[in-house]
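Exercise: predict the fold of this chain.
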Amino acid sequence: MLRRSSKNSSKPPSSDGPKKTKRPHLPTGKKPGGQPGHPKHERPLAPPDKVNERVVVKPPSCERCARALSGNDAAPRLHHVWEIPPVVPHVTEYRLHALACRGCGHVTRAALPEGVPRRWFGPRVEAITALATGVYRVSKRTTVELLRDLFGLPMSVGAVIDSQHVMSRALEAPFEEAHAYAKRQPVKHADETGWWQKNGRAWLWTVVTPLVTVFLVRAKRSSEVARELLGKVTGVLVADRYKAYLYWPVDAYQFCWAHLVRDFVAMTEREAASRGVGEALLDEARTMFDLWHRVCEGRLTRFFFQIHMGPVRRRVEALLVEGAALTHPKSAGLCRSLLERAPALWTFVAIESVEPTNNSGERSVRHAVLWRKGSFGTQSEKGSRFVERILTTLMTCRQQDRNVLDFLVAARNAALNGTPAPSLVPRTRSP
């Protein structure tokens, strides 16, 4: 019986189990670290406007004859030292007076000014708490210790959870806007991975576009959720062949060739007839990827790439016809299903902005997978909403080279002041 692994199925590499010990590397005689002649890499100096203090250092006397020195060096050598000063909490005390009216005797107590948090913590504290737990995957208890050790700020585990919920509400509008934007994009990558919610099985879904990535946590792995994630059919979808996505038209779909390669590897591990077809399909996949990498590196134009891919397509589809007649049910079923949706194998050849793999979708869920393994998922609907929104904010800010903490602080300030939340949608909008 074929043993399923990450090389012949969609199972993650972590499920492969213990492997054979690798042969020890023979000593090369080289010392650890950079080798002689390697390019030098130095830390760049800070821009002049980022320098807080300048200290002029002049030699007092000649190191050769000891005569006193004077004057200025027109181009002194610069040495920068980066340091973080002690950070302590800034505590603002609001004294809310209660005053009695001299006319009627009614006592009126002052209300907090507009924009002042009703909770104990300000926007930056709550943003840092969300950053620690959602971006850096620090546990709630360790977050309490982190805030105490770095800032001398006392906070309970319950306050950490409350801060997550507060930040989740502040991110709701940016999240919804980003989701609507992602649905409209001409090319989208989609993927899903397991999650835990209330100790039950759930799924974390993602849709990835060039500048915006959105996540959803749902209890089901169904076409209903796929439609919620992707919206109406617009543009090209790059994904695996999971049935939830198959409502997407075949001429606007790109199957992930990385998944196909694993399927072809599985064929080579079966009986002889399947092995022959599988090995031939793997050869064609290698040819395709070689051509694709040459295009990405600028060594092959799209025009000649399309010309070279014509024979590859014909050979692959002929092999699938041969495979559909195999006696092995899984091999034959795979080949028949690919033939039925054959155009989805080649969309990347015709449309320049489409890739042959779903690497973008799979990379986007890695952070979430590590979070799940360390935290065992979420324990409530509120917790799942926080996961969706903080992951969407994290990945999208990274795609746009924006500071995540700055965005979180701005979102919380907007919620406090009743002003529009900052947007995750790129400033130069595409359709």
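Check your answer against the key: The mean pLDDT is 91.
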